[in-house]
């Protein structure tokens, strides 16, 4: 699977052949550090002074490198696919090898960082439900008032918690229809691509 880089990302990466290999390696270190701790404008300014370019140029170069490494790591592309993806950029062979080495050295760490950044959402464990129907009251002798009580058991970080919900059948039917519609939408090509890129 080849990476599909936009023109904007290609422009950001176009700065890399203009600098030395050691600078590209340093940019790779900065990129991984950025993923760990977030952006630090002082690093961009210091590198820009040393290279006699604007800090925006350095920032765009590092961000382009971050995108290249994170997307490659997310998709777990092979060495050959990574080389083919970078080859399209028209970089010298030495720079392509350096980028490949950066990718191979850091892909496990990048995947670990990305998995830590993902939200830890509760997952379904079990469900209990009960249908109650009020047939009459003191003031109204003939009334039918149904209600559905749902006890939802969830798991999150090894802990079990319970949510109790109560609704009328019409609202429950609407909820079921919306969930079925969402499941159908998950089968579309667009959603499959998005889910594949998230993993």
UniProtKB/TrEMBL annotation:
PROSITE patterns per the UniProt record, alphabetical: COMM (PS51269)
COMM domain ranges (all copies): 123-190
Name of this chain's protein: COMM domain containing 2
Lineage: Eukaryota, Metazoa, Chordata, Craniata, Vertebrata
Gene: COMMD2
């Amino acid at each position: 699977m080849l990476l599909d880089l936009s023109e904007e990302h290609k422009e950001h990466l176009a700065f890399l052949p203009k600098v030395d290999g050691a600078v590209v390696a340093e940019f790779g270190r900065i990129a991984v550090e950025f993923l760990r701790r977030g952006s630090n404008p002082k690093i961009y300014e210091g590198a820009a002074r040393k290279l006699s370019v604007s800090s925006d140029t350095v920032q765009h170069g590092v961000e382009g490198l971050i995108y290249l490494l994170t997307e490659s790591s997310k998709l777990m592309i092979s060495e050959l696919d990574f080389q083919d993806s970078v080859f399209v950029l028209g970089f010298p062979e030495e720079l392509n090898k350096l980028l490949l080495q950066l990718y191979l050295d850091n892909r496990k760490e990048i995947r670990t960082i990305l998995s830590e950044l993902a939200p830890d959402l509760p997952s379904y464990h079990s469900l209990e439900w009960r249908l109650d129907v009020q047939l009459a009251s003191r003031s109204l002798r003939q009334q039918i008032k149904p209600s559905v009580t749902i006890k939802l058991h969830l798991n999150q970080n090894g802990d079990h918690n319970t949510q109790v919900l109560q609704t009328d059948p019409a609202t429950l039917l609407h909820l079921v229809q919306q969930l079925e519609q969402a499941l159908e939408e998950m089968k579309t090509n667009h959603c499959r691509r998005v889910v594949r890129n998230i993993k």
